[in-house]
Write a structure and sequence with these properties.
The chain is α+β, with helices and mostly antiparallel strands. It is built from 15 helices and 16 strands. Strands 5-6-3-9-10 form a five-stranded antiparallel sheet. Strand 5 (138-143) and strand 6 form a beta hairpin. Helix 1 packs antiparallel against helix 14 (384-399). The longest helix is centred in the C-terminal third of the chain and has 44 residues, at 403-446.
């Protein structure tokens, strides 16, 4: 009875141990992961790219009878999903005029009637260094808002900028002139102000979806907090990347925009203004007869754009202050890049200096809040070493075994098996010897040896 009880306990503990070991093996096969947070305090942090757009697409003073009829087509090239109603309102005017102009004329026209960098960007300073920045340090970027301008972009041949000290004095400081009197009724939105986006230098700005709006007459402070994440590739994670046709480095935003561009070229044989590449820009006929009718298919079609394995963000936190003070002087305004001729013109129309600034100007400071950042790293939460430890623990807990014990048991079993084989093999050899002796004895009896 005692032996039976111990046999039942030994078999039960062995079965439970096997179940637990199999469970650990299956858990390892599922590739479990965890997120590990690391905090870094470097001496400097790379400054991002900054893209700025005016809400106004066309400057009113540049519009005349010779180019007015082509502006609805430019609006459709910028943001076709917002300008369909505007296009219908002006459709009769567009149809009444021959629009078989050269496609490159659209870019030339936008350069004439769109926003101008030297007018839009009145004052710029980087890292509190005089003459360190101007409108020439901004590159033209075509977006859904027409002519936008990017600072520290990928196309700029300058060295990468780093902020070495925290605070607004060591970042980017801008004074923007939105020219409220130049706004037209053709804009899809009734807003007055600007939109800007903080992004990686090799990433499209995506102002429409992720831009931050700032109204006129305000001093905006964008405090940046840099974060990054590192993900594992398959089979442990879901991140991946692929070569892009129009961009040197993979980003999910660039991948999606590239997919839209390729679908537009495949369906209509052309692209819109904000799409990358060198394909022809859509004509009026292509926009009206093809692009608008296939807009949902082009914008929302299937596309393989996985999450990038190294992801970063700058997470701007916005605060605002009304500007300027009622006691601001002409000398202070001139120091901000506003010309004396412009001030003289405002004096002629009897507009106070404070009202003029609040109506047309925006101050924008962009800087790193702290010189530290957090890295969220995806890591394996269960490794092969952990599996060995768990199996060893299960063996020790349930059957009191270790690797040496298992080897000893293995050796014992092998010894018994070999002994059994030898035991089964010996009787066969003895029977053969007896058969040989019997044959020899029989021969002697039948053929006796002569004496």
């Amino acid at each position: 009875m005692r032996r039976l009880l111990w046999m039942i306990l030994t078999v039960s503990m062995t079965v439970i141990c096997l179940i637990q070991c199999i469970d650990r093996v299956l858990y390892l096969a599922s590739n479990p992961t965890r997120i590990v947070l690391e905090y870094n305090m470097p001496h400097q942090i790379r400054f991002p790219a900054v893209t700025i757009c005016n809400y106004n697409r066309f400057r009113n003073s540049t519009i005349n009878q010779s180019n007015r009829h082509r502006l609805p087509h430019l609006l459709r090239l910028m943001s076709p999903w917002h300008t369909q109603s505007t296009a219908r309102q002006l459709n009769s005017r567009v149809q009444a005029i021959n629009t078989t102009h050269d496609r490159q004329d659209d870019l030339k026209l936008l350069a004439q009637v769109g926003e101008q960098a030297d007018i839009f960007i009145k004052y710029c300073i980087w890292n509190n260094q005089p003459d360190s920045c101007s409108a020439e340090n901004f590159t033209l970027a075509y977006t859904e808002y027409g002519n936008c301008f990017t600072f520290n972009g990928d196309l700029v041949g300058n060295a990468t900028l780093y902020q070495k000290h925290a605070g607004r004095s060591h970042g980017l400081r801008l004074v923007m002139n939105i020219e409220a009197d130049e706004y037209t009724t053709m804009n899809p939105e009734p807003d007055i102000g600007l939109k800007f986006r903080i992004h990686e230098p090799d990433e499209p700005p995506d102002i429409e979806a992720r831009g931050v709006a700032v109204p006129a007459g305000y001093h905006a402070f964008a405090r940046l907090k840099y974060n990054e994440a590192i993900f594992l590739k398959e089979p442990f994670g879901k991140c991946n990347s692929r070569p892009l046709q129009y961009y040197h480095h993979y980003t999910r935003t660039g991948c999606k925009l590239e997919c839209k561009t390729n679908r537009s070229i495949e369906i209509c044989g052309c692209r819109t203004l904000y799409m990358p590449g060198s394909a022809p820009i859509c004509t009026d006929k292509q926009m009206n007869q093809c692009f608008i009718h296939n807009l949902d298919k082009i914008e929302n079609g299937e596309c393989y754009c996985p999450t990038h394995c190294i992801w970063s963000s700058y997470d701007p936190k916005m605060t605002f202050a009304i500007m300027p003070t009622e006691t601001i002087t002409r000398e202070e305004v001139i120091a901000l890049g506003i010309s004396a001729d412009e001030l003289q013109a405002n004096t002629v129309i009897n507009e106070s200096l404070t009202n003029h600034l609040r109506k047309n100007f925006i101050f924008l400071d962009i800087y790193m809040e702290k010189l530290k950042y957090r890295t969220a790293k995806q890591d394996l939460s269960y490794t092969f070493n952990a599996l060995l430890s768990d199996i060893g623990g299960q063996l020790g807990l349930f059957i009191g075994a270790s690797i040496l014990t298992m080897l000893e048991i293995g050796e014992y079993l092998m010894t018994k098996i070999l002994s059994l084989c030898k035991t089964l093999h010996r009787p066969i050899k003895r029977s053969r010897n007896e058969t040989a002796d019997f044959i020899q004895t029989s021969n002697l009896k039948n053929n006796p040896v002569p004496v």
